Structures are given as C-alpha cells and as structure tokens.
Amino acid sequence: MGIVGRPTTGKPKGPEPTSPYNPPMTAPVRGESVRLDPPGPEPVGLGRFGEFGGRFVPETLVPALEELEAEFRAAWSDDGFRAEFAHLLTHYAGRPTPVTECHRLSDRLGVRVLLKREDLTHTGSHKINNVLGQSLLTRRMGKQRVIAETGAGQHGVATATAAALFGLECMVFMGSVDVERQALNVFRMKLLGAEVVPVESGSATLKDAINETLRDWVASVESTHYCIGSVVGPHPFPWMVREFQRVVGDEAREQCREILDGADPDYVVACVGGGSNAIGTFAGFVDLPGVRLIGVEAGGFGPESGKHGASVNRGVPGVLHGARSLFLQDEDGQILEAHSISAGLDYPGVGPEHALLAATGRADYAFATDDEALAGFELLSVTEGIVPALEPAHAIAWLVREAGHSVPRGSTVLVTLSGRGDKDATHVAEHLTGEQLS
Q1: Which tens digits make up the pLDDT trace of 77-134?
Q2: In what order do the strands lie in the sheet with 99-101?
Q3: Do 389 and 258 reside in the same domain of the chain?
Q4: Residue 324, SS3?
Q5: Beta carbons within 8 Å of 311's beta carbon, 6+ residues apart
Q6: Residues 339-361 pLDDT 10s
Q7: Residue 333 sits in which domain range?
Q8: Are residues 231 and 216 in the same domain?
Q9: Alpha-carbon distance 160 to 128, whole Å?
Q10: Which residues carry out catalysis?
Q11: Cβ proximity of 268 and 291 under 8 Å
C-alpha cells in the first residue's frame, strides 16, 4: 500500500508556535450535559500540520476520505449533532471525569500531582469519547459496519461498545501478540458482539493491525467506516480524532483552575503512542505559554537494548498508514518494530500534530522504560489506591524520575490517567512475580 516513505535527516523545523485552540469551555459538574467548544482550527491543505500529516492513500480510499471530511465538517458545525454527542458523553460515557489530587504521591515526590481521571469513563479509558463521535458519523453517512484496529484493546472495546449501542456490525483487528496479552479485552469485545481478527503478519502488534484494517477498508469502503483509534492515519482522521478528544483538555483546564485558585498547572503530562489522549489533553493548554506540555513515550527496555521505542526522540520523517510523521526507521527507510510492555504504546510512530509540536518546541517528548512503567504502576496503586493502565503508568514513571530534577520541587503537575489497569493485571503479575493468574 506504499506505506513507508524515504527518511530524511534530522528533525524538521516548523513554524513558530501559535495559539491554535479556542478558549476552553467551563467544565460542568457531574449530572449536567457536557458543553463542547467551537472547533479548533483545522490543519491546512489536505491535513497538513506544518510539513506533517497529509493524505497518502490508494485511489480507492480517496472518495471515502473526502466523504468523511465533508460529513465531519457538516456535523461539527451542526448544533444538533454536537448536542447529541455532548448528551452521549454525559449520559453514556459518564463525563465530565474528575481531576483527583494525589496527596500521598505528592508528599513522596515533592510536587503537587493531579490526575485527570479518564479511567472512570464507561469502558475504562478516553477511547470512548472518540468512538461515540465516529459512530454518530457512521450513522449520519448511512453505513452499517465499522472496523477498527486495537493494541491494548481499549479502543477495540470502546468501538464494540458503541457498535452495540448503535446496532452496527463490528470487526476489530488485533495483533496476535496483543490478543494473548490482552485476553480480558478480547473477551469483552466478543461479549459485545464484535468479531476479533488476530493478525499474524509482521510483529503481530498494533502497526500490523492497522495494515489489515486498511486492507479491509479498501475492499469494503462503500458500506464500512474505519473507526480509527488515535490521531494517526490520513486526513481527516488526526484532526477529527483530536476534536472528539479535546473534551479531556477543555474539562481539565477549568477543573485545575478551580483546584488551584485560578492558576494553571506548571506541567501537563500524558503518555503518547499514536497520541490521542495526549493531544486531547494538550488541546486545553496549548495556548498557555506558561504551561509545559510533556508527552511520554515507551522506551522499551531502554535506549541501549536494541528494542526500539520513543518515536519522537528517535524517529525520522517518513510516511506510514497514510500520513507523514516521525517514525522509527532503519537507514533504508524500512519501519522498525516498536517494543513496549504496554500493548497500547508499541506503535512505531506518532500522530502528525505531535510531530509538529515537537518540531516547534511547544511540547517536549520523553520516554520511560518497561521497568520504570512497572514501578510507576505499583507506586500509584499503593500510594493512591488507583491502578493505572500500563500506558499512563509511563507518564507516572517519568514524573517519578524527574520530580526534584527537571521538574522543580513545589511544581504542580497534571497527569492524564488515560485508562485503568484491570486489563493489564495478568500481564503485570507475570512480570512482577512470574506467576500466571488463573
């Protein structure tokens, strides 16, 4: 499908940072309907974030992407559509999610830690926000089938959930490696009526699941919508998914000001695979120059291990899955396999808007290793009684490492807890104790 492009040397420089998002909404209290901001500005041309993004797809997919873009533009400017989406976010997904102050962890680290609790949504992660929006679009387009890729299974579960709610046929592609380590989510998807297709090709993880989902879409595009799970892929997906996820940052901005007596956090931190929870969080703060944005990628076994991770830090520009961004590549431009203990972070690239934020310096991107993420998983559990998914455990791990160093003592740090750790319990137990839970 022509998914890999020739790498170039070094990190490109984009335009100077701007304030690309509109002022956020006033966060409602639980029980009120979520009110959504006007859309943020779209990428230019055919979905360009600086020199990243775009639409690099087979001709058979161009009409579907043009239809999707037109439908999204119309829907996102339609008060009726946005009211229905907001209603679903409140009365089905359980928004707004709270911001929780972590007193014991804060005392331990010497910084004030706040968590944006996306783990408390229906299905247990931020993925439900985007999927409800895309399912409404699927119905608006008159299509009866959705397909999706999934790594950790959170997006697959959310897609299967929305498909059941809307009466849509659902098929989820999942790497066979991830099927094995995320057995609970596989069962949940099947219970919800979805067909789960194990993918054996390549590294049998998220990248390969996306490849197979794109192949299915090429063959079934007239009746099928591809419900992509992150801010990756061809235009309009990175823009559209950001808009559906920006409710996370819009809520968090106002909630932090309530907690901090009108002030903003010094740091806003989120894990990054493809990057939807991070871009949704950053959307609420990107226009505040005093707030440092930190994306935390998977570092695998560490930079000297030969196991690859940290796409922003170690990637170079190329084309994969229909968009130009930063990807882990060898010297011949072939995509390298990414490794992470977290099934949701082993993607060898990052969404194009993240690539632009890195190029302009508006956001910084760090990484945490597998061992650091496991330690973060345990630490949050024992200090706060909150078991995180392995994905946001990387963000916790970065904060543990940097508190008192690059993050000065007394700083206020907001971390997006993008999902809960139920799905990872068996996998973590095997790593920590060598025991297999029955």
Answers
A1: 999 999 999 999 999 999 999 999 999 999 999 999 999 999 999 999 999 999 999 9
A2: 99-101, 112-117, 412-417, 267-271, 292-298, 363-368
A3: yes
A4: strand
A5: 297, 326, 327, 328, 338, 347, 348, 349, 350
A6: 888 877 888 999 999 999 999 99
A7: 99-123+246-433
A8: yes
A9: 10
A10: 102, 126
A11: yes
